[in-house]
Amino acid sequence: MFRFAHPIFLFLLILLPIFIAVFAFYQIQRKRRIAKLGDRDLIERLTPNVSFRRPWTKFILLLAAMLFIIISLAQPQFGIKKSVDNKRGIEVMIALDISNSMLAQDVQPSRLDKAKQIVSKLVDGMQNDRVGLIVFAGDAYVQLPITADYVSAKIFLSSISPSLISRQGTAIGSAIDLCIKSFGENKTDIGRSIIVITDGENHEDDAVQAAKLAVSQKIQINVIGVGLPEGAPIPVSGTMSFKKDKDGNVVVSKLDEVMCQQIAVAGGGIYVRADNTNNAQKVIADKLDKLAKNDISAENFASYNEQFQSFALVALLLLIIDVFIFNRKNKFLKNIIIFK
Predict the structure, then answer these.
(1) How many domains does the chain divide into?
(2) pLDDT in tens, 175-189
(3) Cis omega (within 30 of 0) for bond into 109
(4) Is the pTM value of this prediction over 0.90?
(5) Residues 6 or more apart from 209 whose CB is under 8 A from it?
(6) Same domain, yes or no: 66 and 152
């Protein structure tokens, strides 16, 4: 496959016919001036060292050099270049709760924003690990497949909001199941962990059973509970009011630490609360450091092979040849007939 990395430079090719037209006009005018002086054959015999062909040769060389320079600037690329990057690390899938209850502000600036800060710090602390991101509410979706591209992970993280999932609820079990599937087959016994970040208000499925399933596949479940046990009301987006129940009472969302602890125990991991004072991210990072590191399956990075060097070299050779061609005939080489 062939392409130009910077095709905008190809617009410079418009200059070539302009230069040809200008040079042709100049040569026509020059020929007319010579014709006024007398017969061309006679003038050529009177000026034996003057070449009428060399200016055209030099112009063609310069024009060709300019063509190759423009192509070089456009940076032609051809084919696919593949490299293999072997790393030793672990694999981590993060299941992030984005239900409306995560908008509660008992943790500042909000539960969801706090959770995103924790994820960002976890990603910053990774070096040779792979990370994936799943968001869930009433349903669970893969936001970012497992990868070593930490920049993409943080970009996807910044765009997360409860509006990504229309069906509200908290399906922790579905999120864990999807994380397990996202890992794929473990052929190297690499350390694997699922980090569930939630307020624990599970209303959809059996999260504890899902955690046990993960353990059976050698996947550790760690849980970060975001919020406070006493809870806080849930803001209604775009308004100054809070969510209310059918009787008109303000709904208070509370951190369900019992549920979070049960999931962590069933998943063979730890539970830590993320509030306004402690550093839950560091506790989880220390736990991840204890997982077995192994060779992660090779990552193939595909890119185009650069070809501009060849065009630049041809342009340089043409310019060098042009330098050694004079408009006047060389008296030492006049017996060698190259240009008539």
Answers:
(1) 2
(2) 999 999 999 887 677
(3) yes
(4) no
(5) 173, 266
(6) no
